[in-house]
Every structure is written in structure tokens, then in C-alpha cells.
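User: Predict the structure for this protein chain, please.
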Amino acid sequence: MDKEKLNLKKYIILITFALVGLWIVNNLNVVGNIFNVIISILFPFILGGALAFLLNIPMSFFERKCKKIKNKKTLRIVSLIFAIVVILFVIILMINLIVPELIDVVKLLIDNIPYYAEEINNLIQRLELDIPDINSINMDTETLKNQVMEYMPNLIASSVSIISNIVSAVSSLFIAIIFSIYILLDKEKLQLQFTKMIKAYLGEKRSSKIINICKEASKVFRKFFTIQCLEATILGSLCIIGMLILRIPYAIPIGILIGVTALIPVLGAFIGVAVGAVLIVAVNPIKVVTFVIFVLILQQIEGNIIYPKVVGNSVGLPGIWVLAAVTLGGSIGGILGMLLGVPVATTIYNLLARDVNKKLKKSKKVIEE
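Assistant: Here is the predicted structure, written as C-alpha cells:
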């Protein structure tokens, strides 16, 4: 009788899951909208968790080094302050190295507008194109004013929307930072509460597996992001050295910029090259071609040799699987998928290797017996 009840319970659960799955498939738009609303509500806390994870890397380093501070709470606060100060120092240093150069280039480009206009007119005349002289174009100010007034309501609405989005983003970031600080100050307590909760609801055996997976993922992600920063530093340093050898202007700020943007998969490379080209073109347009070719070659070397070697060896994933993880992650989740592909693949690889070795040892013992 008990067996029949158990089977009936299994069938009810399977039918329920099937019906829920069918409803989800038939109402993907509704499910997508609900999911987006939930993510938008939870986004500051998700971001706060991610910030806490990243801040915990330098904070743990300072906790290990500051052994003279005996009070654990004081040590935690001091280490957190040191971690935040170091990160802010690096960000401010990069801004001070890059932004002034950008401002100077923009000023130079604005000052040279009459020269550029003259060169364009000379080119038009040489090519004998039927295009009016740029300097002779007359603007109908009255018509322009009427068009501006016509689009003014839409412009105001767009401005309000942009301001609202900025305020929302700033408030989300502020909540995320406060949330991450709370997590870091009470990380052991929160970890204990999480462990108790999953043990209470999932039992000892299942909770043990989940905890092992979480520990492995945490170790891999921590190592990956640390090595990712190292790899970006290597790329930025090679870029600076190469640009100095080739006598390309703005070697140090552009090298730092390319190193930083290298942390962003795929898109980062284009951002670094684009901004670097803008900086160089105002000083020496001919060197832009040399710069672009040099960076493209450097990125090919970095992407196919340095990245798989440095990242793969450090996280314990063979180079071939690093390339596979980046490619597959990009096809599934775009930029974010490319960033998280390697640590996710490494976690699965390590857990699978451990399980395979465990089963092989077990089967070997059975054969020997």
C-alpha cells in the first residue's frame, strides 16, 4: 500500500512538472517579463554579492598579512578599508593617466577643425566632386529653430528618462556597495546560516554535495579573476613595450587602457583600440595604421598563446578546453558568457575529474576483491 502511494506521489509530481513546463513553453513572453521584473528587483543585491566576492580577494590577502591585529572584528574592518582604498587608488591612477590625455586630444581636434575643413575642401576640388564648399554652406536658422521646437517635447521626455535611469543606476550601485560591505563583515555568520538552511531542507548527503560544489566554484572563480587581472597586466605591459619600441605616441596611457579593457571579452579589445586610435590620430595619423596592426598581432598572440597558457595552467584547465569554454560561453551568453565560461568549465572539469577518479578507484577495489 505504501509502495502504491509512493508511486502515485511520483506520478503526480511528474505530471505537475510536465504541466508547468508546458505552460512555460506556451507563455514564454509572460515568463520572460516576470523574470525581468524579478532580476530588476534583485539586481542591486546580485551586484552586491558580486562586489563582495571580488572585494573579498584583496581583503582576504590583507587579513592574512595583518597578523599583528589580534581583534578579529578590527582586523576585518581594517582589511576591508585597505581593499577598498587599493581598488580606488588603482581606478583613480588609471583615470589620471588616461582622461587628461583624452581631454588634450579633444581640444587639439577642436582647434584643428578649420584645418580639417580646408583639407576636405581641397580633396573635393582635386576629385572634382559636385559638393558645395563646406565653408559656403548657409544654415537656415529659422527652419532649424522650428524643427528644434517641434522635437522639444520628445527631447525633454528622453532627458527625463535618461536622468531617471542614471538616478536608478546610482541608487542601485549605492545599495550594492552597502550590501557587499554587510556581506564581507559577517561572511562567516552568513556562510554558517546558509549551511544550516540547506542541511535542514535537503538533508546531510545532498547538502554536503552542494557545499562541495560551492567551495570548488568559489576557489576556481577566485583564482580565475586573480589570474585574469595578471593576464591583463601582461597584455598592457607588452603593449606599452611594443609601442615604445615602435615610437607610437601615448604608449603608457594607451597600454594601461588596453590592459584594463582586456578584462572585457571581445568588446574590450575594440574599445581599447578605438580610443587609442583617437589619441594617436590627433598627433600622428600615419602611426595609427602601425598601432592598429601591432595591437591586432598582439591580441592574436595573447588570445591563442598567452591566455590559454596563463589562465589554463593557473586554474587547472587544459588550454584546448579554455578556448572551447570561451567559444561556447560566448555563443550561449554573449560577453558575460565569455567572461564566466572558463571558471564554470573549470569547476565542472574539476568536479567531473574528481568523481571519475573516485569511481575508478571504487571499481578497481571491486575487481581486486
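The chain has a mean pLDDT of 77.
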